[in-house]
Amino acid sequence: MINQFRKLNPINLLLLLAYTFFMRIVIFYEMPAQLNFDFLEPFARLMINIDLDKAFSPSTNIFFASVLVFSQALIFNRIINNHNLLSKPSFLPALMFITGASLFLPFMVLSPALLCNFLLIWLIDKFLKLNKSLNSITTVFDIGMIIAIGTLIYFPFMAMLIMIFLSLMLFRSFNWREWIAGLIGFLTVFFFLAVFYYWKDNLSSFYQIWKPLGNKFPSVFKINYNDYLVLIPVALIIILASLQLRENFFRSFISTRKGFQMLFFMFIIAAVSFYLKPDFRTWHFLLCVPPGAVLLAYYFSNAKKRWFYETLFLLFIISVQYFLFV
């Protein structure tokens, strides 16, 4: 299967579509009685107040979630191939993206994090372009606005502001205009939101938006470890990929090395940003899928022993399906 997706064969598009729905068999088999979908944060509903819970039945919700994941996988695949992060162009990034977006049942329904993944993929493209631009002020300003829009959808997306400064340190020499351009882009969106709150004579509520920024990082976690056993094969593949990346690190292009460093930081920030949402759900970790999928794809793109990597991926899929059903 891996060998098939190592090629840019058009038939892989149909295989990916079938694979997307195959990985969601369990949720179609055990259809939830009701699914809630709030596609905006409460503070943004003052401008756009649409109730989609009644518009989407559970089956419609799951179907559209599958279509969105498939669409994201294709966009993501094109971006990774365009920036030459892997040894050669392939459909492996899309395959790993769909697999990562199918690890848990909460990943398979419409959620704010799923919508934000479109913006996160766009950000990855923007960040990787920083190294190729003579003047990145406009690009960084756009990045700030994208993060602000994502924050309206899902508040923890604001943590991606940190990525602006980390990426500028990785890809650019210091230019104070670029460093503030991202913040200005972010604040521009919220300036218009503040004006709207003021117009509605509700400015005091606008200040409440920022309360989660004062949350302390939790020191105690309540985790049911049985729910996360499926991450064992993921961790194994990531370890193998890290060893392989380390071996090839100094033989890679500088832009490739910096790209993987940027994706590593993005993965960490996406994971820890859950603390900005006290009532966060498991689907929050969908934000980790794009940067994580690149590392998984890197391993399978460079692995040499076919019998081993094909068997490893097959066991990975079997374990995902097993833990989803049990």
Automatic annotation (TrEMBL):
InterPro entries: DUF6427 (IPR045625). It comes from Pedobacter jejuensis. GO terms for molecular function: monooxygenase activity. The keyword Mitochondrion does not apply. The keyword Membrane applies. It comes from the Bacteria. The chain crosses the membrane at residues 12-29, 62-80, 92-123, 143-168, 180-199, 228-246, 258-276, 282-300, 307-325. This is Beta-carotene 15,15'-monooxygenase. Keywords: Membrane, Monooxygenase, Oxidoreductase, Transmembrane, Transmembrane helix.
